[in-house]
Give the backbone structure.
Amino acid sequence: MSAQHPRRRTAVLALIGGAAVVPAAIAPAADAAASTTAVRRVERIAGVQRAPDRTAVAPSSSPAGAQDVPSGTPAGARRSLRAARPDWGRTGTALGRVDRTQTVPLSLTLAWRDPDGLAAFVRDVTDPHSASYGHYLTPEAFRVKYAPTAATVTKVAAALRARGLTVDAVSRNGARLTAHGTASQVEQAFGTALNAYRVKGKTLRAAAGTPTLPADVAPDVTAVQGLDQSGAFTKPGATPAPVFRNAGPCSTSWAQRLSTGTPDAFGGPVPVVPCGYTSKQLRSAYGLTTGQDGGGSAVAIIDAYASPTIAKDANTWSANQGVPAFATGQLDQSLTPYWITQIPETPGDAGDDPQGWYGEETLDVEAVHAMAPGAKVVYAGARDPYDASLDDTLSDVVDSGKAQIVSNSYGETEGDTSEASRAAFETIAQEAAATGVGLYFSSGDNGDEVVNTGERQADFPSGSPSVTAVGGTSIGIGADGQWLFETPWGTDKSNLNAAGTGWDPAPGDPAAYTSGGGGGTSAFAAQPAYQAGIVPPALATKYPGSTSAHRVVPDVSAIADPNTGFLMGQTQTSPDGSVAYSEYRIGGTSLASPVTAGIMAVVDQGRAAKGLAPTGFANPALYAAPATAFHDQADGSRATRGVVRTDFVNSADDSDGLVTSLRAIGDTGTLSSIPGYDDSTGRGSPNGSAFYDAMTAAPTK
């Protein structure tokens, strides 16, 4: 199985006696309309100017029955907000206006104060060559200096209420405000019709035109989420809801067993698939030694929902692996407090699958603990898997100061996001960078996305220049735990033919491709300063039609191929209804991200021992590190080796038979695998002590 989640998010709410407390700043009585100076929207982070947005949609003719600006929209000067229509709003089948009475939940992102000053601060505090490097703000100091004022929150809330919307709550940092209303009220409030579209079997909502707000309010609002259903294609990929078991045989290390009775490939007998690498094997392969356990560090994990068996599963797995169990308080699981009065999205619209997300959480928690058994793990589950809920959860974790490393195993293609959704995310990322929090995102499990979507595109949020995008590798680990090889993860599946004499289709046939580490060139983000001089110009301008340098992903990579994957343990439900704990091999960049986060927890442990600040936003330091700090994967773009694996047809037992296949390793499609930086594995994977030494070195001013 591979694992990666497409996307959503939630924030913090003060709770008293279990009831939601609406801050005074947005209470109905506080209807002050004090005028404030317009705040220009934040467009930059870490000194990077955003590239032009190719999905920004100007008001235009709408499908039959829809209008861009509904009749009755309040008159007066209005100003445009960021577009709230993903690519599918142009390519999907238009169905006309949405149900006028349906409730639409909204999440507004308010602008930070002093955007130019904040951008400059972020640039300097994350630059290893700056005198300000590592001098982060506390969340409290950040709020004092940059958070929207109470007057600003009051003004925005009053404007929404004046247009018939119900304001629900505001986050602790004042940057996220939730509200809801009927579709009719929302259309009137934002000056655009809400249309329905049929896309990939789903009926989804998006704004027909560019949303607007009164000119005295719009500058304070960076983005509005909820007008469109960005994140509708976010679904868990870590595990299936039913039981999943690996059939034998398998190897305890790379090529410990060779397949017999099956055709040769790649010049000889083919290794039998590994059983799943253990904590001991992965720590050894990536050069972590005794005492380097991440003690003193805290890693947060963002997913949706919360597994009811996580503590038991993680500690059972730990005992079986010979890893210390979680100590009391070392694993902190919570569902982030959400706007209790807000109406949720219609269940199922985003492919809601709590059991699948339980598997994602279990993988993430166990992978971090495998690499950094001394680190604290803070799990924060969003109440649903929509963009706004996941963003609210991420914002809460960042603003809480609970962890300096955050691993996120979800994402979606850039084309499935709206300009509003991307802008809302960048606002959160700015606070993270300013307060020393590093955001790590899996880069996706569909390679260049051509097979999945028909066009080459990067994923988001991994495509943001404000996060560390973690790509995927296939890894060989020897009997003594030694690193043997890594190659870009890109899998071709060929089944054993009926005669048992060959593989069909042949390895390398485009029809054989199943999955691979995500990578490519962002259509929206300009090249960040840290990539200049490292990323080949041919990759930075690789997006069709681009003439300027853009952001390229991933930044680094780690184990991801499920055919050279990780052995995890989870409570699962069998076909007969019985519930039991079992262990199985798994992969995906949903594995690569928490593995990297665990390694960075060890790095931060080492930095603390030297009196240095945590790494925080890692990319400037990662790109400043010498090439020797990374295992460079430069294998071309075609499969060069593979494994033979046998699977249960029904994923549970042999009652329905077995299927044998060759899984070829290294097919990257249009992504490159060349010396130095490439768009399949970035700079490469961590190279043991060389990586640790580079990332814990005192900065040079």
